[in-house]
Each structure stands twice: as C-alpha cells, then as structure tokens.
Amino acid sequence: MKYRRLGKTGLEVSAIGIGTWQLGNQWGKQFTQGEVNDIFARATALGINLVDTAECYGHHVSESFIGEALKNSRSQWVIATKFGHHRASDLPPEAHWQPEQVLLQLEASLRALQTDYIDLYQFHSGTREQLDNDALWTMLDKQVQAGKVRFLGISIGQPNQLYQVDRATALGVSVIQTIFNAINSKAADAVLPSCQRQDLGVLARVPLASGFLSGKYQPGAQFPADDVRAERKPEVNEQQITQALDILQQVPAGMAPATWACHWCLQHPAISSVIPGIKSLEQLETNAAAGDL
Ligand SMILES: NC(=O)c1ccc[n+]([C@@H]2O[C@H](COP(=O)([O-])OP(=O)(O)OC[C@H]3O[C@@H](n4cnc5c(N)ncnc54)[C@H](OP(=O)(O)O)[C@@H]3O)[C@@H](O)[C@H]2O)c1
Which residues, judged by CB distance below 6 Å to any ligand atom, belong to the binding site of ligand 1? Predict the structure, then answer.
C-alpha cells in the first residue's frame, strides 16, 4: 500500500481508504458486527488506515460498527465522519446545521465511534447558506481547540461547488471530499486546482460510480428496494452503466475493472486517498490492489 500526505494536515493516509455508507445497511445488504470486524482486520493487514463514515449512514449505525471494530486499534486509524443530517430527529432539516445541534451530533458520533476524538470532521454536503454560518465554524474551532476534532473538512455535494472549496482556508478547513471518477471528472476543472493552491487534502468519493465501474452491471440492471440505487431515476443508472461499460474497454487485460477505476483516480496529483464503498472482503482486496500500483 502506498501512502499520501493529506494536504496541510500532514497526516499520511493510505492511497485507498474505506467508504462505509454501505455499513448503514442502505445498499441492499445488512451487515453483522462479525463481518465488519473481519473487513477491518483485513484492511489493516492490507495497510489501509483511513475510513470515511457519517452520522446519517443508518443514524450512527455505520459509526457504531466501526467503533466496535476499531476499539483496540483506534490510534492506528484516521477516522473521518460528517455532520449536518439527523434523520432520526423531528426538527426541520435546516436546524441540523445550527451549532448547538451539530455539537449534539458530534457527541453522538464520538459515543458511537467509541473514541474521544475524530480525525476529520466534515460538513456533509450542505448548501452555500448552510456553510456561510460564522457561529457554526466558531463552535467547530472550539472543538478543535478542545481536542475533540483534529481537522475540519467539507464534503461538497457536487463537484462544481467551487465557492465552498475556495472558502476552505478561511474557514479553517484542510480537507475536501468530492465525487471523482472515470465517468465524472468535473472536479478536475476547478475544484482540484483550488485544493492544490490551498494545499488541501482531497478524498475522492464514489470512485466506482456507485459500483458501475466494476463492470458487473448491464443496462436494465435492477436493485433491491433497500438499495439506494433503487431510489435513483432508472434512466440515470442506465446512462451511467452504459458510459461505464464504454470506458472500461480500456482496462488492461488481467486487471479487475474496480482496481483500474480506483487507480484512475490516483493518477490526479491532487488526490490524497480514494474511498470506495465496500460490501465484502473480496471487494476490499480488489480495490486495495490499486494502492500498490
Ligand atoms: N455526500 C457525501 O459526503 C458522500 C456521498 C456518497 C458517498 N460518500 C462516501 O464515499 C464512499 C464511496 O462512495 P459510494 O459507496 O457511494 O460509491 P462507490 O464507492 O463508487 O461504489 C460502491 C459500491 O460499488 C460496489 N463495489 C465496491 N467494490 C467493488 C469491487 N471491487 N467489485 C465490484 N463491485 C464493487 C459495491 O456495491 P455492489 O456490490 O452492490 O454493486 C459498493 O456498494 C461511501 O461509502 C461514503 O463513505 C460520501
């Protein structure tokens, strides 16, 4: 496994990390703690040291699985989680971005992750108005001073949200997370150059285009009702599957398409780590192979 500097944080992170939206049981599979423990044990053996999660991946469910799996090896991992959504609350969505609510989310994330600090705490794909809230960033800075958070990040909702990326340094943010893959490389236009100018770390998410760059889906693919891909417009899935199959024609013989797709992201010098979401040990290993190329 190769390692890269996570921008100005100075952290050395594995070129391939783990995305864990899947552990929120929203991708057509229910996980057990035993499976998750096996995934993290294997990931450790492969040299992976970065995991991305969020408070809303099954309302702290993904975080709880991770907390239990890493409770004896916490210090070896860089844990990135996010704030801004609280699906189990009766409050209107806008309230979840207010400082007092984010502080409650942070405390709940710390409990679920069985830790007293979060390495990277990310603004979870909010709007420009939600970002431009001085009170929020003042509260977050206090959490950094108190040692509950080491570094702040912004996970932009769309890869053209340059405004949010350009604001990063002024807000005390040192890492950006963005969609970046072989069929959606829009981040390379302006977002990644801005990250390079500001020396921000970059996490490349959705590197497999929601699994379609694994090459296993054909047009007409159906997804179970408890899989987030079933909620998307069928024509959008269809178009991405077709585009993916076209692009995958350039994969060298003998290389798994998923390995190629993760490695494709790493060829951009702004990318610190790629965070494919995984559902099995086999997927973990195939993706991790890109970190050795
Ligand atoms: N707004 C945000 O901040 C945001 C949004 C989205 C994602 N994320 C983060 O980014 C991570 C990655 O994005 P993503 O999970 O949406 O998309 P992704 O990584 O492009 O695709 C993940 C899916 O690809 C399939 N897959 C993974 N490895 C494979 C392999 N080696 N061979 C074949 N299939 C494989 C799996 O599903 P199947 O086997 O069922 O096909 C898996 O669920 C998430 O887990 C999450 O941590 C953040």
Answer: 19-22, 27-28, 52, 82, 124-125, 155, 177, 205-211, 214, 216, 258, 275-279, 283, 286-287
Amino acid identity of residue 80, one-letter, is A
Residue among 81, 82, 278 to mutate when testing ligand 1 (max atoms within 8 A of CB): 278
Closest CA to 275 of 153, 193, 126, 161: 153
Q: What is the CA radius of gyration of the chain?
A: 18
The CATH superfamily holding the domain 3-292 is NADP-dependent oxidoreductase domain (3.20.20.100)
Q: Where are the domains of the chain?
A: 3-292
Over residues 211-225, the pLDDT tens digits come to: 999 999 999 999 999
Residues 42-70: what's their mean pLDDT? 97
Express as a percent the part of the chain with pLDDT over 70: 100
User: Model pTM greater than 0.70?
Assistant: yes
What angle do the packed helices 99-112 and 134-145 form, to 10 degrees? Answer: 40
**92 — pLDDT class (breaks 50, 70, 90):** confident
d(C-alpha 220, C-alpha 111), whole Å: 42
